[in-house]
Amino acid sequence: MTRKASESRPSIVGMGPIGETIAQRAAAFDMPIRDSSRQLKQDLLCGFEPSSVKLATWAGALIVGVLGREETQWLIDADILRALGHRGLLINVGRGSADSEVALIQTLASGGIRGAGLDVFADEPRVPKELQGLPNVVLTPHIARSMWQPREVMSQLVVENVRAFELGQRF
């Protein structure tokens, strides 16, 4: 079953550079977007939902783009996956430590969510065998940013940071 893009409900956990880019692209397709970032982003056309569980309940696809920090470890747990429901999708392009792989594997295997797209894993480069055989999972080896344009931008940032360091500036 398919639906119009404007009827999709992407929800973003982690409204940093990755989340902002996803929100801008989704907005171009008139998708209603919500996020649960720590701070409300006034300049983005997103609905703000401070509760991650409520965000997952509303979502058609829960997109995770958080950084790997102590406060984001296992952020996506069994409660959030349950709230996402059997029609929901989990997309993680942030950090593998953000979702509880044990809860995710159990939820996927039982049909608790429709599926998952995972570009990151808790113990990279090792991917849990239980994920590899599931028909409702798409796995990629942390290549979401492996196009040449993002690599070029990242390389330029390295050069700018080295120059700033050499000049005694903050980088």
TrEMBL record:
<protein>
    <recommendedName>
        <fullName>D-isomer specific 2-hydroxyacid dehydrogenase NAD-binding domain-containing protein</fullName>
    </recommendedName>
</protein>
<keyword id="KW-0560">Oxidoreductase</keyword>
<feature type="domain" description="D-isomer specific 2-hydroxyacid dehydrogenase NAD-binding">
    <location>
        <begin position="4"/>
        <end position="144"/>
    </location>
</feature>
<keyword id="KW-0520">NAD</keyword>
<dbReference type="InterPro" id="IPR006140">
    <property type="entry name" value="D-isomer_DH_NAD-bd"/>
</dbReference>
<dbReference type="Pfam" id="PF02826">
    <property type="entry name" value="2-Hacid_dh_C"/>
</dbReference>
<dbReference type="InterPro" id="IPR050223">
    <property type="entry name" value="D-isomer_2-hydroxyacid_DH"/>
</dbReference>
<dbReference type="InterPro" id="IPR036291">
    <property type="entry name" value="NAD(P)-bd_dom_sf"/>
</dbReference>
